[in-house]
């Protein structure tokens, strides 16, 4: 199609919207001002109808990406909008260059997060606790939640204009993905990379499950502070250190230890002293009286004990601290568990058995005081580990779990970056990559949940013995067990589920057909590019890289683009706890302050937000949006997100910038209107010679196109938006059109 009129060039948008011929475009087709809702309406349906997002069959390799799957816990926020917009710009740019693009959408079942939110929802709306119903009933509620939230998330993605190939949509709890998860586990087990062992793990008593490191956040306290803990009516005090005396056997001398966890004292099995300690080293090999039990415990030497922390001597409670557990294994000490998986004191903690751990703490301190062993209680700087999903304080407990060996996989992942096979952009994140992978621990992949991929491992019971094997089904497990242990063997599947990160780490290849090799598998895999926030570099990107190399013998992607974390204008990360989360549709469609607060209250009524989160969010809304949020449209939102340097660690989002970019959209509209106003419908002959003004504007157009292409090549979207704004706003509108207007006015 030849465009022979200037007005034709600026009327392309109207052409797509109305499906008219270029020659039919009229000034009346343009509203007086930019109206986002009218402009956005109908576009997405047209794009899908024309199948613009489906890659045409090609003999060449596809440009392939997957959208980091949003969790089905709720709806999208602006952080999701940032990732989606970045990928959408890249996908559309490659289509414009003629590349066949496959951009895959999907949703993540988010085991812990979803189970937690559904439990809150059921308790708040129906008065039902998980223990009140069967596993099957609970899972039916989760599937209902998934259908509702999944549909809403997909609608939000479409409202953002994400040009995803919906025919390739996946879900991490689908039967297809479950096959991939099972196959991966079986293969890894066959390669002797999985083992089951009792070890120290992060434990959430309110969830009754182990959790991954990424689901633990550390609250830094500098002094005595009361914080809310699930299951306690009153706030619990942290930020204190207690000094306790342990009297030596056959002596009036004593060793003073300092602890921030007096509730674990009943589980003490030794006092550890650094052999270089000037005062306490002389007691090594002796015994001290336990302050709460009628027993004596040894004083041992261990150079891991810090001379600078507390008094220089430490109590060893191996069942409730990773460092203490390592010391206990080294010295062959007993392990005494005094806090149960439910967060209550066990029988070994008599006379405090049955008390919640933090109420027991108060009683233990009181008992130590009465016995004369309590020396001081002082304010103390400390880090409190909390579950990001529930707000509960993490316990460290010993539990038998499945672990994946990571050392060899980590070495391959590090080498891929060193030799340039895998590019991490921006490169300063490589330091984190090497630091984490270079000090990697084996990965605990077990979770004690109902929602998730049940671990495909089976306990084989035979002749008073038991062992474990991995299999693709119970039938396969029984056949294997009978061959190994005889016909009387019985098999029972592990009740635990796999860590969600294990499932999502397979997505680069499972989403396009693995383990079955589809026709286009090798054209789509490895992915061309992976885009996500830098905060999950080692929890997701590294694990995708490790498992991709192990299971497919290829890198899952050749390049990783890590964008910054979206924060508000004060630099605070957008989160429920801060009360500053904004949904994309609130910016796109606009919303009043009353309606904004009504959404917050609705979330509270559904059990999604706590009372404190509601109070905080309403307060933040009043300060940030006293007049609500004006409708800006998807284009203005996307342009605003791209106008930041996405490679910075933090990206400051200001809704006022969206309003400014809405005015920029209006500028483009008015330029189109003016161009139509200044021309008629007669074809314009292409002049043999161009005026200096025409040559200048065409040179600026060419420079802008080159600048945008170069910026997109380097993934510097802010430079692309700057080049576009410079050309349209200042060169085309403010100068070129003004000169034409002045010329026509002079002729009159």
Described by strand count, sense and barrel closure, the largest sheet is:
4 strands, antiparallel
| Percent in helix | 40-55%
Approximately what portion of the residues adopt beta-strand conformation? 15-25%
Instruction: Count the E strands.
Output: 29
Number of helices: 24
End-to-end gap: 35 Å
Strands of the widest sheet, in order across it, are: 6-5-18-20
Radius of gyration: 31 Å
What gross morphology would you assign?
globular
Q: Would you tell me the structural class of the helices and strands?
A: alpha/beta
Average of pLDDT: 90
Low-confidence stretches: 1-23
Could you describe the 3D structure shown?
The chain has 748 residues and is an alpha/beta fold. Among the domains are: 213 residues, no CATH class; 141 residues, Alpha-Beta Complex (Isoleucyl-tRNA Synthetase, domain 2), CATH 3.90.740.10; 37 residues, no CATH class; 62 residues. Helix content is 41%, strand content 17%. It is built from 24 helices and 29 strands. It has a four-stranded antiparallel beta sheet with strand order 6-5-18-20. A four-stranded mixed beta sheet has the order 13-14-12-15, with helices on one face. Helix 11 runs antiparallel to helix 12, helix 11 crosses helix 17 and helix 23 runs antiparallel to helix 24. The chain is globular. The relative contact order is 0.12.
Write the layout of secondary structure elements.
Layout: H1 6-10, H2 12-18, H3 36-40, H4 43-49, E1 63-66, H5 78-96, E2 101-104, E3 106-107, H6 111-126, H7 135-159, E4 170-171, H8 175-190, E5 194-204, E6 209-210, E7 216-221, E8 225-227, E9 236-238, E10 240-247, E11 254-259, E12 270-273, E13 287-289, E14 296-301, E15 313-316, H9 322-331, H10 357-371, E16 374-379, E17 382-387, E18 395-404, H11 407-418, E19 423-425, H12 430-438, E20 443-444, E21 446-447, E22 457-462, E23 465-470, H13 474-485, E24 490-493, E25 497-498, H14 500-504, H15 507-510, H16 521-524, E26 530-533, H17 537-552, E27 559-563, E28 565-567, H18 584-589, H19 593-605, H20 611-624, H21 633-642, E29 650-652, H22 655-678, H23 692-713, H24 717-747
Parallel strand pairs: 1-2, 3-4, 12-14, 19-27, 26-27, 28-29
Antiparallel strand pairs: 5-6, 5-18, 7-17, 8-9, 10-11, 10-16, 12-15, 13-14, 18-20, 21-25, 22-23, 22-24
Helix pairs in contact: 11-12, 11-17, 19-20, 21-22, 22-24, 23-24
């Amino acid at each position: 199609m030849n465009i022979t009129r200037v007005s034709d060039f600026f009327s392309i948008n109207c052409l797509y919207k109305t499906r008219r011929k270029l020659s039919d475009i009229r000034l009346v087709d343009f509203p007086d001002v930019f109206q986002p809702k009218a402009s956005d309406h109908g576009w997405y349906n047209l794009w899908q109808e024309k199948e613009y997002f489906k890659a045409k069959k090609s003999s060449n390799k596809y440009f392939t990406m997957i959208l980091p799957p949003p969790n089905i816990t709720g709806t999208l926020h602006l952080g999701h909008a940032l990732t989606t917009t970045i990928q959408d710009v890249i996908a559309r740019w490659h289509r414009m260059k003629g590349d066949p693009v496959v951009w895959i959408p999907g949703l993540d079942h988010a085991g812990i997060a979803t189970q937690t939110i559904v439990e809150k929802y059921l308790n708040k709306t129906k008065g039902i606790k998980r223990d009140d119903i069967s596993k099957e009933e609970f899972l039916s509620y989760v599937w209902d939640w998934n259908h509702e939230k999944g549909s809403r998330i997909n609608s939000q993605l479409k409202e953002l204009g994400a040009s995803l190939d919906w025919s390739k949509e996946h879900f991490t709890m689908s039967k297809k993905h479950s096959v991939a998860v099972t196959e991966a586990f079986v293969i890894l087990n066959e390669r002797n990379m999985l083992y089951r062992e009792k070890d120290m793990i992060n434990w959430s008593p309110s969830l009754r499950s182990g959790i991954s490191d990424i689901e633990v956040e550390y609250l830094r306290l500098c002094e005595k502070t009361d914080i809310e803990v699930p299951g306690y009516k009153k706030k619990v005090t942290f930020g204190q250190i207690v000094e306790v005396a342990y009297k030596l056997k056959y002596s009036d001398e004593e060793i003073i230890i300092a602890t921030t966890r007096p509730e674990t004292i009943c589980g003490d099995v030794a006092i550890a002293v650094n052999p270089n300690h000037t005062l306490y080293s002389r007691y090594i090999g002796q015994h001290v009286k336990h302050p709460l039990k009628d027993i004596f415990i040894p004083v041992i030497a261990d150079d891991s004990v810090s001379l600078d922390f507390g008094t220089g001597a430490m109590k060893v409670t191996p069942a409730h601290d990773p460092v203490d557990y390592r010391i206990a294994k080294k010295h062959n000490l007993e392990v005494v568990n005094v806090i149960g998986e439910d967060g209550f004191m066990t029988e070994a903690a008599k006379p405090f058995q049955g008390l919640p751990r933090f109420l027991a703490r108060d009683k233990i301190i009181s008992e130590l005081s009465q016995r004369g062993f309590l020396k001081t209680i002082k304010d103390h700087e400390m880090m409190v580990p909390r579950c990001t999903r529930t707000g509960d304080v993490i316990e460290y407990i010993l539990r038998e779990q499945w672990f994946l060996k990571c050392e060899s996989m980590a070495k391959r992942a590090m080498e891929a970056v060193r030799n340039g096979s895998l590019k991490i952009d921006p490169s300063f994140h490589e330091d984190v990559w090497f630091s984490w992978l270079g000090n990697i621990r084996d990965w605990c992949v077990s979770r004690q949940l109902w929602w998730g991929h049940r671990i495909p491992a089976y306990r084989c019971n035979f002749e008073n013995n038991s062992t474990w094997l991995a299999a693709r089904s119970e039938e396969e497990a029984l056949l294997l067990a009978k061959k190994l242990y005889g016909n009387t063997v019985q098999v029972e599947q592990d009740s635990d589920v796999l860590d969600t990160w294990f499932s999502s780490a397979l997505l680069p290849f499972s989403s396009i057909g693995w383990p079955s090799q589809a026709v286009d598998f090798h054209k789509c895999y490895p992915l061309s590019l992976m885009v996500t926030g830098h905060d999950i570099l080692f929890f997701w990107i590294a694990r995708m890289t490790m498992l991709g190399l192990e299971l497919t013998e290829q890198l899952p992607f050749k390049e990783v683009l890590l964008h910054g974390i979206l924060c508000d204008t004060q630099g605070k990360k957008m989160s429920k706890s801060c009360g500053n989360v904004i949904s994309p549709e609130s910016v796109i469609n606009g919303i009043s302050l009353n309606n904004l607060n009504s959404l917050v209250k609705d979330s509270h009524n559904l059990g999604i937000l706590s009372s404190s989160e509601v109070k905080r969010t309403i307060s933040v809304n009043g300060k940030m949006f006293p007049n609500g949020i004006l409708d800006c449209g998807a284009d203005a939102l996307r342009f605003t997100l791209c106008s930041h340097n996405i490679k910075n660690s933090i990206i400051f989002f200001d809704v006022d910038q969206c309003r400014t970019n809405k005015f920029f959209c209006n500028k483009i509209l008015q330029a189109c209107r003016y161009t139509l106003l200044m021309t008629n419908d007669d074809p314009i002959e292409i002049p043999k010679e161009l005026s200096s003004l025409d040559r200048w504007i065409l040179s600026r157009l060419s420079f802008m196109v080159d600048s945008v292409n170069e910026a997109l090549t380097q993934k510097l979207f802010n430079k692309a938006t700057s080049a576009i704004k410079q050309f349209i706003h200042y060169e085309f509108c403010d100068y070129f059109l003004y000169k034409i207007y002045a010329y026509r006015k002079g002729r009159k």
